[in-house]
Amino acid sequence: MCCIGELFQCETPLLPVAAAVVLGGALLYVLVLRKASLAAIPFELRPPGESLPGWKGGEILDRPSILVEGRPDLIQCFDPATGRSLGQVPATTADQLNDKLRRARVAQATWAKTTFEQRRQVLRTLNEFVLKHQREICQVAARDSGKTLIDATLGEVLTTNAKLQWTIKNGESALKDDVRDPGFMMMYKKARVVYQPRGVVAALVSWNYPFHNTVGPVISALFAGNAIVVKASEHVAWSMAYWEQMVRRALNVCGHDPELVQFVTGFADVGQALTSSPHVDHITFIGSPEVGKLVMKSASANLTPVTLELGGKDCAIVFDDADMSQCIPVLMRGVIQNASQNCIGIERILVQAGAYDRFVAEMARRIKAVRLGAVLDDGAEGVDCGAMVLSGCFDRLEALVADAVAKGARCLVGGHAYAHPRHPRGQYFEPTLLVDVTPDMDITRNETFGPIMVVMRFADEQDALARVHSSPYGLGSSVFSADRLRARRVALSLRTGMANVNDFGVNYICQSLPFGGVGISGFGRFAGPEGLRALCVEKAFTEDRFPFIKTPIPPIVDYPIQDTEKGYQFTQQIVAFAYSDSWWASIKAGLRLGQLSM
């Protein structure tokens, strides 16, 4: 044998041989094993012309609103960054909804029989399209929701690709049969959980991220073998046709029925008709606690299972020893991204007393410098923060700020709706810094969904926890500290569905983790194995381990029972034999069983 230093001088050149084996194996994997994977199929889809930068084809609405006077069957679409009309979209009727549910059901019967590899091909096809057309997707999302292209990339595209990739790589392992221990009594059986498609599922999604919120549930539903009906928010109805065409084309080019995916849009009546339909097998709802309760009530008519993600009042606890050079930029994004129209946006920042003043001073400097605008029109001049989607949110936001100030808070920056000089009909709210906030103020218990940084002071761990838990929400949370043990201890003490140490919102990029909250933030989970399995019937399945061993009914307990007292003693001894902790007790029970059987 040669030493490693002599590999190249040996009669048998071991290193070149080993390299050849490795390269040969890699080549075999690429040419043979990878060949078994069904590749993505490219396709093209033209985005709507209104999404192009500088488009000015629609009229500027005097008072932008989704309502069309005298036409409850129409939705007025407009760019919230400019107030420019994007046209009108017809609301889905009850008959159209029922027809879509019927077509989805027919398509699902065939789709349920597809292999995981066939489903992966559809997701690969969709993933490649999204990667290739990032800019077009971001522009469509920006036009419909007023966000910046950076926010669209991070919140719409990156999150969608993360979900696609995780599902492609891990979906099958999450849904493969789960073998279980049958226990001592049933040792002659094989037991497993089989995850079977529910059928036709529904998703009613919010408006803050129109692409991701719409396509995310489609990814999970399809991979789990379901058809899906998506009810898009009426506030972003314009972009829905583009997202629907994208998904249906991906199905079509892969040889599958595009009727698997149906989109509907409209007002509350459409949502109520969908959630109360007996033809829906599961409902995912993303929205407010108030509407979530209505969805749950509507679904109860048919006992349809629901997953509810109902927003949050996410906190960030910043200890004295936190790395401010990392913490402050992260929290700025947690508040300013998408004008803080994020379910896991940072809505409360608790800063320990020793770091409070310098934290506030730096945030005041940064927030004053944030630039508002319409990215597709003002991109060359620079835009940090986009518009607000809801036209009726400004009185509520100003009232929350005013209540806090009246109770002792200080508003150092902003606090009001913003009249943009270039876009007077655009919907903007000033980036706001509200400090010295206390738990008795309305803004600490109500989701703002606006670019308002709320800063609270705390003394120690227990004080921080008490202030955080004064809110009924419990979605996400963050803890910033150089002391890893303390950060972990505090994070795990928070009554929230998700927690991050020295970060914000990364649970959503870690698609292996379930997403959801507690309290009035809802229940159930999407993302991760838990999210996929929620869209399946978890069927408990047993079968004989050996064909020659089957469950017998001993004559002593076979109907009609001849001696009930003796039969009762027999069943008692079965329990003792199978479940006693003591071997001696089990042996005695076994002997007694033999006696009773005679």
UniProtKB/TrEMBL annotation:
Keyword hit for Metal-binding: no
Transmembrane region(s): 14-33
Key words, A-Z: Membrane, Oxidoreductase, Transmembrane, Transmembrane helix
Top-level taxon in the UniProt lineage: Eukaryota
Stored Pfam families: Aldedh (PF00171)
Domain called Aldehyde dehydrogenase: residue spans: 73-539
Molecular-function GO terms, alphabetical: oxidoreductase activity, acting on the aldehyde or oxo group of donors, NAD or NADP as acceptor
Protein family per UniProt: Belongs to the aldehyde dehydrogenase family.
Protein name (database record): Meiotic Sister-Chromatid recombination aldehyde dehydrogenase
Species this protein is from: Coemansia thaxteri
Gene name in the database record: MSC7
